[in-house]
Amino acid sequence: MEVILMESVDNLGEMGATVTVARGFARNYLIPKGLAVLATDGHRKLVAEHMKLSAKRDDLRKAGAEELAAKLGELSCTITVEADEEDKLFGSVSARDIAASLESDHTTIEHQQIVIEDAIKQLGVYSVGVKLHSEVEVTAKVWVVKAE
Question: Which of 33, 92, 110, 144 is most buried, most CB within 10 Å of its CB?
């Protein structure tokens, strides 16, 4: 059965692509969840309009993210944690901890936007990515220091 994807679906295709899938998969999953529509001429026009609007919204979001990135500049924060004599942490510093520490009066950063490569389990200075948009990322310095 041919369907047009209304959203990007992992291991299937990008938004707007026409793909052939099993009837049951289309009827029971893709169509009810709004991820796809049947591949008809009317739906092709509908998807083309949907993609134009989606591209405009994405451009606006990207412009807003770039403006925010320029305003934020170089972010930094200090997180105080408990550690032993060998500077190993009791636990680890998570994306939620970093997001809470980076939050300022006029900017809210969600923990999903924080990109940590490895868990932070020792004291030190770390560079952490803050993904404001799929194409806009800012680097933040995170200082992990021992509580006195």
Answer: 144
Distance, CA of 148 to CA of 136 (rounded, Å): 37
Q: Give the sheet arrangement for strand 36-38, strand by strand.
A: 18-20, 2-5, 36-38
Using alpha carbons, list the distances in angstroms from residue 58 to 42, 51, 52, 97, 130.
24, 10, 10, 29, 18
For 64-80, write each residue's pLDDT tens digit.
889 888 887 778 889 99
Matching residue, tokens 């052939």: 20
Domain 73-146 classification at class level: alpha beta
**Dihedral sign from CA coordinates of 10, 16, 17, 19:** positive
